[in-house]
Design goal:
Length: 1267
């Protein structure tokens, strides 16, 4: 229904009457006509108001009124020219009406005028050079002369801006502005064809290229007018600026949105500075203005940049810093945050590392939450940035989101240190690859000086980073390195009691003594989070042993007491790993165990508690934290069923490792086998259930339920497609989690009571920790070298390699490497028996193999023959090949072979044969008692290591030279651990070497005679060894000793021998003082020797760490695990020399078997012969220069082998000037530098860099020059 005003009859006579009255007043008073433009405009608007409503009746009436207005303005009055119409248009642009659309009275009046004069809304009446003033016919030349015609000389003096600018500044009626611009656009299209000089001054004089299209020319002319700034007071304003300022701030910004519809309006105008409307809105926090801009896709692409986001954050930072000095013109902080969030909402690719760093710097958590999800950030650096800027909240956030960052080095952007080099134009970068997050807590970057300065660390950040680093880093060496490099002082990181000899002392006595200890108690401080707490077995001491049925008098609380002491006295809050070998009978209280685990936030739990109930652990707090769990089973099916039930292990959502241990002491062998089979079956099922559970959790988190009630009516085709997609996605998620949990089951004794042979891998880890990872990788590399040579993927294996192990002769007191075996064989190790699920395998394999033999005795006899390999020579000949000892009868009954790697397990004989590629009949040899594992199945001529192995697996041959007075002391039955420990050290460094054992004494370096040593060296030369290790010193000399050593040198053999440790009173010892031997002296880890060295008389060539070195306890002999002396250093030197030669051969042996480093063009080359002591690898090679020989024939003084070893040892010397001869094992292959970076060095890396063919060629050439 129309309003009363719209029903009102339009009065077209009002504006005519107003104009007529003005003329009459001028005539009666005889003065110039005062132009009533404003009054006329108002009358016209009022005349249009009744017909503004859109109805059929109004259309005719409206056209009639518009026609009358047009006639009045353009035909009826000569006094009304463009100046008057400009003033009427100016008044019509004023928005004082509630109706704001194209049918409003103002819009109709504006449209009426600009449709006839399309340019008029953009003209200025009173500006210099105004076209309107120039064309006006009603200007008085003499202002004092009276006239009845209109005088425009002073007309419109108060109207400084154009109608367009007036409309933009004051109007909310976007239809008015739209009409003005649309008609100007039409005018520009018309003027494109007009010659530039004949166009109105309103349009710019632009020279276009010939290929510019007319529509592009018109668009450029239009934009130039719209972008043209106008002087408002002291400042110039553009149309965009006016539309976003003043009265429009509180309006809907419709006019601004109309302007932004014209593509290119925000571009830099011709001859004018760029429009700053958007930047001003950002700075002032005008959120509505920013939103209006970003509603246009073209403008989003232009303004949503990392630079603008950073500007918005800088405005926030400035406002926050000035918050205490706010003025009336200060921007609203809420508006500034709104602008930032609006930019972030559309950022996507604009959200880069610089933006993230700025958010962190200003501590804008809300902005971080508003970031897009598909950003491509360097997430490894975020934590470092947060620490650098000391933002605790972000440190907490990033520790949760990116936990691995604590152990990652990164350089905060913008903190590179540079110094000017000799060239003035070149700057040298001094910054390393980066630092750990903890380091940044101690340092502050100076932008002015471009360097790091010390600062007081933030305690809250330290309390967050240190525990997170302890939890995240697995390797203690890396953990210590991180704290050291970060200059972070730390207290004790672990509580270690497992080394306590609980056989001799009661654990409870030690616990109570420790808790009661008060003297200097402040020296023992712990971090709030410690890596682990480990305890010794609690029931080993005779007084601690309790048996079933005994009346228990007290409840044991030793572990609880220690944990309480750590918590209350030492302020330990969290323990990552807790390992407690509890008692078999009367262990600690199960409920209190769960309480302790919860209190300390334990993640790795290994509490030896029989058949532990999982229900004691709270499901909401403890179970989600456990990531590794060890369970101990007595074979009870009820406990096992509980573990694998829906209330058991499946409720530990973050479990990654699960180990179940079956205790052999409590059940029979058959029961143990059945239990292992049962648990193994449950574990396989559990892995599938666990993967499904994790996949379901991720699926629900990734895609919430979107199906609502009432949506079942989808098209069937769409439903089928969706189901297929979901099924495919579910399979992908399941595949992701399949195999992500590691499980295992094994059986062993509760408290194994016997010793075992030293494991060479473990010894390397303890004694040479920094290079132990490489040693293990090297052993695996050598074991699989045949497979690698067959691989065609040259990107992964760029060079096919061949291998010849280094032969090392150890001249000492023999060895003893026999694994202790208990009288009663323990039960099967499940870890090695899972290969066979067929129940038939429980039958004796030997019995099935010999099923045709009916007589049991005959069967046993044949079995013994089939499994016995006698030595090639008897002990009477002083030489023997290592053989394997077993009980044929027990082996035939059990079908099992002893596994000495772990010391207390068994494996099926068929499995052992499969592992080693041998038949069952060749897996053992009976010599009278003990059973050896597959690692000891070494036959004469074998040159590969199989498995981790013990010392026995590396021995090639042995010979005893202790044969005085009709008595021979066997080389493999040493009465002292010295020789065995030296051999352990050599093989721990080079686990692929071959040992040749020469026994020259029964005791520890006592009774060694030159004659025995001479014979031993001759035997080693005959065997073609590469290195002779002599960890002894004699004080008696024979001329023949010098001769045989010279012969060994001629053969290119490296001879390592010990310096005497007798002090300055002893000037000479042998073979140290013999020419051509390399003398090794023991020193500490810093290169200092225990005694003063007289450089003039001391023959020492090299110094190696030889003090307090772990060499392994030797079963059946009185021995210490850690030993010291130059003999130790000599063994280590021999081991590293062996590793050097092995690696050199790996990189120079051709697939045809030629080792370039030990071949020559010397005199021996003509006969194409090689030394009888060498094997087929030492063939003639034409690739080396003339005269470089290491084949060691009678015509060649070859030195390549010795020179290779000496050259690489020299590379391992940290300071040849201050401490000559001091060799550091960690510098082998520059492994120490890689370890500092937290990286592991691959074998290929060492071979391609350290042992490159070029390096080896240079060494052999150098050897040739020296000869």
């Amino acid at each position: 229904m129309a309003s009363p005003e719209q029903n009102k009859k339009p009065d077209t006579k009002s504006y005519r009457g107003t104009w007529k009255k003005a003329k009459e007043d001028a005539f009666s008073d005889k003065h110039a006509l005062k132009i009533p433009a404003s009054e006329v405009a108002v009358d016209m608007i009022e005349a249009l108001r009744p017909v503004s409503a859109v109805t059929d009746d109004n259309t005719t009436r409206r056209n009639k009124v518009i026609g009358d207005i047009t006639k009045f303005l353009y035909n009826d009055n000569d006094d009304i020219d463009s100046c008057v119409r400009w003033a009427i248009l100016h008044r019509a642009a004023l928005d004082d009406d509630s109706v704001r659309n194209e049918n409003s009275p103002q819009a109709l009046l504006v449209s009426t005028i600009v449709s006839r004069e399309r340019f008029l809304a953009f003209e200025f009446l009173n500006s210099p050079g105004s076209a309107l003033r120039a064309q006006c016919r009603s200007r008085r030349e003499d202002p004092k002369k009276s006239s009845l015609v209109p005088d425009h000389s002073k007309f419109g003096k108060d109207l400084k801006e154009s109608p367009f600018y007036w409309a933009v500044e004051s109007s909310q009626n976007k239809a008015v502005v739209k009409s003005m611009i649309n008609n100007l656009e039409l005018y520009c299209k018309e003027q494109v064809e007009v010659e530039p000089g004949k166009q109105r001054a309103l349009l710019p004089n632009i020279t276009f290229s010939l290929d510019t299209k007319p529509e592009d020319k018109a668009r450029r002319l239009l934009l130039d007018v719209l972008q043209r700034p106008f002087q408002f007071g002291r400042n110039k304003r553009t149309a965009l600026g006016l539309a976003s300022e003043g009265k429009n701030k509180s309006r809907d910004l419709g006019v601004l949105k109309v302007l932004l519809e014209y593509s290119g309006i925000t571009d830099t105008p011709h001859g004018n500075p760029p429009d700053a409307t958007f930047e001003n809105a950002m700075e002032d926090g005008e959120l509505n203005v920013v939103k209006a801009f970003l509603e246009v896709q073209e403008l989003r692409d232009k303004y949503v940049t990392s630079e603008n986001i950073i500007k918005a954050m800088n405005h926030i930072g400035k406002a926050i810093s000035n918050n205490g000095e706010r003025s009336n013109n200060s921007p609203d902080i809420g508006g500034l945050f709104g602008v930032l969030q609006e930019l972030l909402k559309h950022s996507n690719s604009a959200f880069n590392d610089q933006v993230a760093q700025k958010i962190i710097e200003l501590n804008l958590e809300e902005a971080w939450d508003s970031r897009p999800t598909n950003t491509n950030l360097d997430e490894t650096c975020l934590l470092h940035i947060a620490v650098h800027h000391q933002r605790v909240e972000f440190v907490e956030r990033f520790l949760k989101d990116y936990p691995a960052s604590v152990s990652t080095k990164a350089l905060v952007p913008g903190t590179k240190m540079q110094q000017k080099s000799n060239s003035a134009t070149v700057e040298e970068d001094l910054s390393p690859q980066g630092y750990y997050p903890l380091w940044y807590n101690h340092k502050q970057w100076s932008d002015q000086e471009k360097e790091w300065k010390n600062r007081n660390p933030n305690k809250r950040i330290r309390d967050l980073l240190a525990p997170a680093t302890i939890r995240q880093v697995e390797k203690m060496q890396l953990l210590s390195s991180i704290f050291r490099e970060s200059e972070e002082e730390v207290d004790e990181l672990c509580f270690e009691m497992s080394q306590l000899n609980s056989k001799l002392y009661r654990v409870s006595d030690f616990v109570h003594s420790l808790i009661s200890h008060q003297e200097n108690a402040g020296l023992l401080l712990y971090e709030s989070t410690i890596k682990y707490a480990r305890f010794p077995p609690l029931d080993v001491h005779i007084d601690d042993k309790e048996t079933f049925g005994r009346s228990f008098r007290e409840e044991h609380t030793e572990v609880f007491d220690i944990l309480d002491w750590l918590k209350e006295k030492k302020k330990v809050i969290s323990i990552v790993e807790l390992k407690v070998p509890d008692r078999l009978f009367n262990p600690h209280n199960e409920l209190l165990i769960a309480e302790c685990v919860g209190d300390f936030g334990v993640e790795i739990l290994d509490w030896r508690f029989l058949d532990m109930s999982l229900s004691v652990f709270p499901a909401d707090t403890v179970r989600p934290r456990i990531r590794e769990l060890h369970l101990y089973s007595s074979g009870k099916r009820a406990a096992i069923s509980h573990w694998f039930s829906e209330e058991g292990l499946i409720t530990f959502p973050n479990l990654r490792n699960l180990e179940i241990h079956v205790i052999q002491d409590l059940i029979s062998k058959d029961h143990c086998d059945e239990t292992l089979e049962h648990i193994d079956s449950n574990l396989r099922d559990f892995e599938v259930r666990w993967a499904n559970m994790k996949a379901q959790v991720e699926k629900e988190a990734r895609e919430p339920r979107s199906m609502k009630e009432g949506e079942e009516g989808r098209e069937s085709e769409q439903r089928i497609q969706t189901r297929e997609e979901k099924k495919k996605e579910q399979k992908a998620i399941y595949k992701k989690f399949k195999g992500s949990i590691k499980t295992g089951v094994s059986s062993h004794l509760w408290n194994p009571t016997h010793e075992r042979l030293t494991n060479l891998d473990e010894l390397a880890q303890r004694t040479f920790p920094k290079i132990s990872h490489f040693i293990k990788s090297y052993r695996n590399y050598v074991e699989n070298i045949d497979k690698m040579s067959a691989i065609q993927d040259l990107t992964k294996y760029p060079k096919k390699r061949n291998f010849r192990p280094t032969k090392v002769a150890i001249i000492d007191n023999g060895i003893l490497s026999i694994s202790p075996v208990s009288v009663e064989a323990p039960l099967a190790s499940r870890a090695l028996r899972r290969f066979n699920k067929n129940s038939n395998t429980k039958k004796n394999i030997f019995n099935s193999t010999n099923s045709n033999v009916s007589n049991p005795k005959e069967q046993e006899t044949k079995l013994t023959k089939a499994t016995t390999s006698l030595p090639s020579s008897s002990l009477a000949n002083n030489t023997a090949i290592p053989s394997h000892q077993t009980s044929g009868t027990k082996l035939a009954k059990t079908g099992l072979i002893r596994n000495t790697v772990g010391g207390d397990g068994w494996i099926h004989e068929a499995r052992a044969a499969a592992i080693n590629g041998t038949s069952t009949a060749n897996t053992a040899a009976t010599t009278g008692g003990a059973i050896e594992d597959e690692d000891r199945r070494i036959t004469k001529g074998s040159n590969r290591t199989k498995g981790p192995g013990t010392l026995w697996s590396r021995i090639k041959e042995g010979k005893s030279f202790v044969d005085d007075d009709h008595h021979v002391s066997p080389w493999l039955f040493a009465s002292d651990p010295h020789g065995t420990q030296m051999a352990n050290l050599i093989c721990a460094i080079d686990p692929a070497c071959e040992l040749y054992v020469a026994k020259v004494t029964d005791g520890n370096n006592f009774g060694i005679s030159p004659e025995r040593v001479i014979r031993a060296i001759e035997w080693a030369i005959a065997k073609g060894v590469d290195i002779i290790s002599m960890s002894f010193a004699m004080f008696e000399q024979k001329d023949r000793l010098d001769e045989v050593i010279k012969e060994a040198k001629k053969q290119g053999i490296v001879m390592m021998c010990s310096n005497h440790d007798e002090g300055a009173n002893t000037k000479e010892s042998y073979p140290a003082n013999c020419e051509h031997t390399w003398v090794v002296t023991a020193c500490d880890e810093y290169g200092f020797t225990p005694r003063e060295r007289d450089q003039s008389t001391d023959p020492g060539n090299y110094m190696f760490q030889g003090l307090d070195v772990a060499a392994g306890v030797i079963p059946f002999l009185e021995s210490s695990d850690r030993i010291s002396g130059s003999s130790v250093a000599t063994a280590i030197a021999s081991g590293i020399g062996s590793l050097i030669l092995s690696c050199a051969r790996l990189n120079t042996c051709s697939p045809e078997g030629k080792w370039h480093g030990e071949s020559c063009h010397g005199p021996c080359a003509g006969s194409y012969k090689h030394c009888v002591a060498r094997d087929s690898h030492d063939k003639h090679c034409r690739e080396l220069p003339l005269g470089s020989c290491a084949a060691q024939t009678e015509h060649c003084d070859g030195a390549n082998r010795r020179h290779i070893v000496s050259s690489f040892l020299e590379k391992m010397m940290p300071d040849k000037t201050k401490n000559p001869g001091y060799v550091v094992l960690d510098k082998f292959g520059e492994i120490d530098e890689e370890v500092k970076k937290g990286e592991n060095v691959s074998v290929e890396y060492i071979l391609q860099n350290w042992f490159s063919t070029g390096n080896l060629m240079d060494i052999t050439r150098e050897a040739s020059k020296k000869k």
